[in-house]
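Collaborator request, handled under Task 6.
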Amino acid sequence: MPNEYQKAGVNIDNGIAAVKNISQIVKSTQDKNVISGIGGFGAEYGLANDISNLNNPVLVSGTDGVGTKLLLAIQANQHNTIGIDLVAMCANDILAQGAQPLFFLDYLGVGQLEPNKVKKIVSGIAEGCKQAGLSLIGGEMAEMPGIYQAKDYDLSGFAVGIADHSSLLSKENVHENDILIGLSSSGIHSNGYSLVRKIIDDANLDLNKQYQGMSGKLINILLKPTKLYYNSVYPLVKSNLINAMAHITVGGITYNLSRMIPENLTAKINHGSWHVPEIFNFLQVKGKLSQHEMDQVFNQGIGMILVVDPKNLKKVINELNEKNENYYEIGKVVKRNEQSVEFI
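Structure tokens returned to the collaborator:
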């Protein structure tokens, strides 16, 4: 017989089962610094191994979610990769400041707790953590009927990394004639999905159809997880080959790169210097969007931009080639014009 709490919409037994289901998945991401993870009132992570070579250690943190991309995952009943998006949105941010990844915490709020669905979601988070070099050490799972409908859920995450203060990446390191290297995105990543969903509705698009020029069904392209750049980029950071970096999220190249450009300089971008995936052209046509709006909302095929001193360019390119990272030389830093970022 259901108790009164279950009648109110919260099933404690399902919560316990869900935690049991994910325990080994979470543990598989953890490094030797994890003292205690899920099960206690707080997770514990030691820093002794990470600060021994740092003169002035600084913790770098980032938090984010995956926005309304979640609604497409729920609609399609595809929950295996949305956790990768969650980790990537946080991990790519702290990487952009030059941080060595340490640990990750997640928050999952649901309308109705289904242990098997939770396992799929957390498996994606764990996979993202492995790709990002992060230990998944804990989080929160809350069943909240009334706030969320039965099948609805929400995700947020928190990543923490560490760096020596002198090694942090910032606009202060950027100089005239630095080269801009754009790293390919895996697609739309996790920004602009309110506009994507509006285009789907307005143009009456079929999510299960493979449209001309597409590599698969529209829903699979839209749910392709955000790319993580840790494996190909952090070795460059560690070797002091990067002056600055920009993670391209909402606001596109213009807004996000401008955060890494000093007031006396301009990032001059060659608009035709990289391949724009077909999904962006498709959305622009179906949504009747201007080029300006496309550039403002979407990453347009560039997920991360590295700002590189010309003397380090060859080493950076060699290492990116070794990692099979797809990249483009998309521009350079020049003396300030009217704008911090200019397309040519």
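The cover message to the collaborator said: "Residues 232 and 323 are 6 Å apart (CA to CA). The radius of gyration is 21 Å. Please let us know whether this matches your experimental observations."
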